[in-house]
From TrEMBL:
Protein name: Class I SAM-dependent methyltransferase
Keywords: Methyltransferase, Transferase
Keyword Transferase part of the UniProt annotation: yes
Biological processes, Gene Ontology terms: methylation
A Pfam family of this chain: Methyltransf_23
Natural source organism: Rhodocytophaga rosea
Alphabetized Gene3D superfamilies for the sequence: Vaccinia Virus protein VP39
Molecular function GO terms recorded: methyltransferase activity
Length: 226
């Protein structure tokens, strides 16, 4: 097994395939709502009534269809204080997205993310399956939530291992539980409410992009730690 570094993963055919660069909408059958069990639009609208500015970050946003739909809906309702930011390594975003002043897309790996403010919502729909250092991304996302912010993303703990191949699921679940971070085994959903300082005490050593399929039925990346 040859482990890949974070930058080399960008060129992996597993990471850059069309199935990762999804075209999920915001609501409905093939949607963020279905995958995350959350109506993001309602969440943002409620937050927008409570605060001066609301920030939503979506990691591995694909074509950004859901984000464009959210921006359009908010604009039609006259809600101007929600800022939406989407990151994706492929950089193939929907046409017309530049017409929304509250929407920004970034073509880059999220491991290069250098946030300048805290977020009210951070989402990652199946994107963590393709990231090398999954634990570092999760730690950073949770640390950059507002005090009442929400992080939610799909995660398969079986894709996080020690160098000898040992599964870290039990250890990780205990760490998450101690920090009052929820992990839904049935839906493979990680949910954190409010900013937290989370430490896994594991060192990332590389990723295997030939790990095969996980529960999604798609080929994914295994992350290795020591």
């Amino acid at each position: 097994m040859q482990l890949q570094g974070e930058q080399s993963l960008i060129w992996s055919t597993v990471v850059a395939n069309c199935r990762m660069n999804r075209e999920r909408g915001l609501l409905g059958v093939n949607s963020y709502e279905k995958e995350l069990k959350l109506n993001i639009l309602s969440f943002l609208e409620q937050k927008a009534e409570q605060k001066e500015i609301i920030y939503w970050l979506d990691i591995c946003c694909g074509t950004g269809k859901a984000l464009v739909e959210a921006a359009a809906s908010l604009q039609s309702k006259g809600i101007t204080n929600v800022k939406i930011e989407g990151w994706d390594v492929a950089g193939v975003f929907m046409n017309g997205h530049t017409s929304f002043s509250n929407l920004q897309f970034v073509t880059d790996t999220i491991t290069n993310w250098q946030p300048t403010y805290h977020y009210d919502l951070i989402t990652c729909v199946h994107g963590l399956h393709y990231i090398g250092d999954k634990l570092e991304v999760i730690q950073r996302c949770i640390s950059y939530l507002t005090k009442d912010g929400l992080f939610i993303g799909n995660l398969d703990l079986k894709n996080i291992k020690k160098l000898d191949g040992t599964n870290l699921e039990r250890q990780l679940r205990k760490t998450l539980q101690n920090c009052k971070i929820q992990y839904n085994l049935r839906h493979h959903l990680l949910t954190c409410e409010g900013k937290k300082q989370l430490k896994f005490d594991l060192q990332y050593v590389g990723a295997d992009d030939q790990a095969g399929k996980n529960y999604t039925g798609q080929e994914v990346v295994d992350s290795y730690y020591q």
